[in-house]
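Morning run. Coffee first, then this:
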Amino acid sequence: MKILHFISSPASGGAEIYVRDLCIHMARQGHSVLIIFLTDAKSIGRDIEFEKKFLNELKENGIDYKILGSRSKKDLLLNFLKVGKLLNTLKPDVVHAHLHYAMVYLSAFRSKVVYTHHSIIPGAPVFIFKLYNLRVGRYIGISKKCKEILEGYTNHEVARIDNAVDSERLNGNIKPRVESDSNTVTIVATGRLMHAKNYEMLIEVAVKLKEKNENFKILVAGEGKKEYRKILEEKVVERKVEDRFKFLGQCNDIPRLLKSADIFVTTSHYEGLPISLIEASLLGVPAVVTDVGSCGEVVEKCKSGFVVNADDVQNFSEKCSLLINDKELRLRLSKSALVLSSHYEIERSVNEHLTLYKNL
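And here it is:
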């Protein structure tokens, strides 16, 4: 099949990484794949080195790509022409949109567009989905909860294809974890520095843990606006946990970081189905997560940790304390994650997508 995917940018976001992995494995099965990116990393303040690595991986797997340009109004008509020309040249069997802008561009030229909504929030006025119904051939929800919410937005049937991760990308090191001899427990969070990730809560968790004299350090990997990072770092100093809490910035080797972690955490206000949580599960890292989006679905399926109400600093810190002080519990949860997380490997997701495409 000739398959066209349309995503935001070659950046380090979960949806972008997931689409890249899907495309690589579709290409390896002999399908012709093209990715349209709405914009480049530099235009939206994302990491340029990560973009280079991202695009090189596409080239190495024989995947073509086109970058439209900025989101300025001046480029709108020009980009419509570019998309129309690409569709006319490639004549894809399937066009798959992964963001609202993609639906706007693709629906101008094609019916039966496949649309995946990668979040639990609408991201646009809900009435927009009623317009999408005129052009969408099939909706995809990335988890049980996301499927249910998207069905509410659209009043249409939504296929459920859970997010997944390429275990090969985790350096092929899917095996029982061997904890270090260090007495300091390493807690890792990954994700862009933005309000939705609620790192303010994680700082307060660090305060609680330090008050209990727990032996820990928290590492946060993710890019973000310098101004917001400065606010967070000032908060760390203000709350006197700078000896326990560090922002690493953009990390281009998340698997290596996760392999060094004893505990994975996410304190988000909202999520879809986080790729980072799936990566941690496949690597056997016990987790403490807030009960937002489909985080709970992953932890419950993998029996890999604890799910806590959003913004409940006290309960979250108590669960972290439990894991910090019980190495045997961490090992049991790690083994469980390694055994039960195979549902989230990329091959299953690729095959489910290809089956859906064939039935359009």
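The chain has two domains: 2-164+345-358, 169-344. Good start to the day.
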